[in-house]
């Protein structure tokens, strides 16, 4: 397993390019299953999760070509096996996004249950409930969701769907299924994340009729058929937010090209309160910080968009660890998303966890510092927090099991090296 070796203590300076969003690219690869015409996606990030999704759709008989420049051409004209097997689903929960499109276009789908996940149990009951409201008959057998249309039906039927909680991939599954359903679907309590809007824009470019995306009520008028399109994947706000935290922590001056400040309001506000200067500039975001002990720890609660993203909780916590003062962080979205805490503690951080709440006592209050050690990545965003901690720790930090990081960050160590970090990959 590859590891990262980081020698901490260098500021970050220069420019870095923000890649396309993982959480937009994954549903958009699935949206290509909704048509028999070719679809071209631009700005697709080079990530393990994208490779897994391409493997999943190729396994269905779809042709998908990926070029180095981030272009992916998909032709689902030959799709002949509407199935997502366990071997592929187990490594990536987002495979559940195949369910809606397959059911909408073929009237049947067999998709493995995603199973457990490090950050919580992450059930799919809402996906099933919403598609069932559109008429799908879904049974769960032998670890698979087996879905089909009732006898005599040729399409799903529009419905009013109110989920018990806001679910991002649930909203995406319903959007894709409703695009080809008969009649109107209204999604209440819909997720409002920028990735939902980006998917909706792609579906509209394919001929779908959608209104209200970006709000909590989305209306979809089903159409008979969708056609091909070319769509550019929106910039990754979580990758951008991760770099913002890294620069705030190490100190320095960096422009994030293609970064969207308007997608990161909650994080940027906290970074400003912490003492970093963050501005939207032409075509990106600029962050400037004196770093380390000049920062003030900030408390926050993770919530759905536009609140503070759960996907940024771990990275901001790394920054809090080295700041002045004490901060309380509450994780409201996932039940077990503090696994980075023990690893940060190994680097010298002072953190107490009680259920959903973590209290971080910033080291700067006592002039203490993080000190390098070997730590283990436990999930995607936890890995990023350990990298940030390693960048500011004294001495050498080795981050083990970075396959988690590779799932969701496009060339992270190369990008950090370009900004002046002393970081290298040690191949297994
Ligand atoms: C998506 C993101 C992930 C992010 C998360 C929350 C993708 C590919 N992944 O995950 O990076 O951390 O949103 O912003 O876009 N829930 C249920 N039943 C369901 C569905 C969800 O109980 O059927 C619960 C989950 O366990 C969780 C909460 O609802 O507690 C929100 O989860 P959800 O928004 O669905 O997360 P994902 O879409 O899986």
Automatic annotation (TrEMBL):
Any single GO BP term: peptidoglycan biosynthetic process
A Pfam family it matches: EPSP_synthase
Subcellular location: Cytoplasm
Broad enzyme group: transferase
EC number: 2.5.1.7
Recorded GO MF terms: UDP-N-acetylglucosamine 1-carboxyvinyltransferase activity
HAMAP family hit by this protein: MurA
Function: Cell wall formation. Adds enolpyruvyl to UDP-N-acetylglucosamine.
Main location group: cytoplasm
Stated name of the protein: UDP-N-acetylglucosamine 1-carboxyvinyltransferase
Keyword Nucleotide-binding among UniProt keywords: no
Lineage of producing organism: Bacteria, Pseudomonadati, Pseudomonadota, Betaproteobacteria, Burkholderiales
Organism per entry: Acidovorax soli
């Amino acid at each position: 397993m590859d590891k990262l070796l980081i020698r901490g203590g260098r500021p970050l300076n220069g420019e870095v390019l923000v890649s396309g969003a993982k959480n937009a690219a994954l549903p958009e690869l699935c949206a290509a299953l909704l048509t028999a015409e070719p679809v071209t996606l631009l700005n697709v990030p080079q990530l393990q999760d994208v490779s897994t999704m391409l493997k999943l759709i190729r396994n269905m008989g779809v042709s998908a070509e990926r070029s180095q420049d981030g272009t992916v051409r998909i032709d689902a004209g030959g799709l002949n096996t509407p199935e997502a097997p366990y071997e592929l689903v187990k490594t990536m929960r987002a495979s559940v996004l195949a369910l809606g499109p397959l059911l909408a276009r073929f009237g049947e789908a067999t998709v493995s249950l995603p199973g457990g996940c490090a950050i919580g149990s992450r059930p799919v009951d809402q996906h099933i409930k919403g598609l069932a409201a559109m008429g799908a008959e879904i049974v769960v057998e032998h670890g698979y969701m087996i879905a089909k249309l009732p006898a005599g039906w040729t399409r799903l039927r529009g419905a009013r769907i109110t989920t018990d909680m806001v679910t991002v991939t649930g909203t995406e599954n319903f959007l894709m299924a409703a695009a080809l359903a008969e009649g109107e679907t209204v999604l209440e309590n819909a997720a409002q994340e920028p990735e939902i809007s980006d998917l909706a824009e792609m579906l509209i470019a394919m001929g779908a009729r959608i209104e209200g995306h970006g709000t909590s009520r989305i209306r979809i008028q089903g159409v008979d058929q969708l056609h091909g399109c070319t769509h550019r994947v929106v910039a990754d706000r979580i990758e951008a937010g991760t770099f913002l935290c890294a620069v705030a922590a190490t100190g320095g001056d960096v422009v994030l090209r293609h970064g969207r400040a308007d997608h990161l309001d909650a994080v940027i506000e906290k970074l400003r309160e912490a003492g970093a200067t963050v501005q939207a500039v032409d075509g990106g975001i600029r962050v400037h910080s004196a770093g380390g002990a000049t920062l003030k720890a900030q408390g926050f609660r993770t919530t759905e968009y536009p609140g503070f993203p759960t996907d940024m909780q771990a990275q901001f916590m790394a920054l809090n660890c080295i700041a002045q003062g004490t901060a309380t962080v509450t994780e409201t979205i996932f039940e077990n998303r503090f696994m980075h805490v023990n690893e940060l503690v190994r680097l010298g951080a002072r953190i107490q966890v009680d259920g959903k709440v973590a209290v971080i006592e910033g080291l700067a209050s006592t002039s203490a510092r993080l000190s390098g050690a070997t730590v283990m990545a436990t999930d995607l965003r936890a890995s990023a927090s350990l990298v940030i901690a390693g960048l500011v720790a004294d001495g050498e930090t080795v981050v083990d099991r970075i396959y988690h990081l590779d799932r969701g960050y496009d060339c992270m160590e190369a990008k950090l090296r370009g900004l002046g970090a002393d970081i290298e990959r040690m191949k297994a």
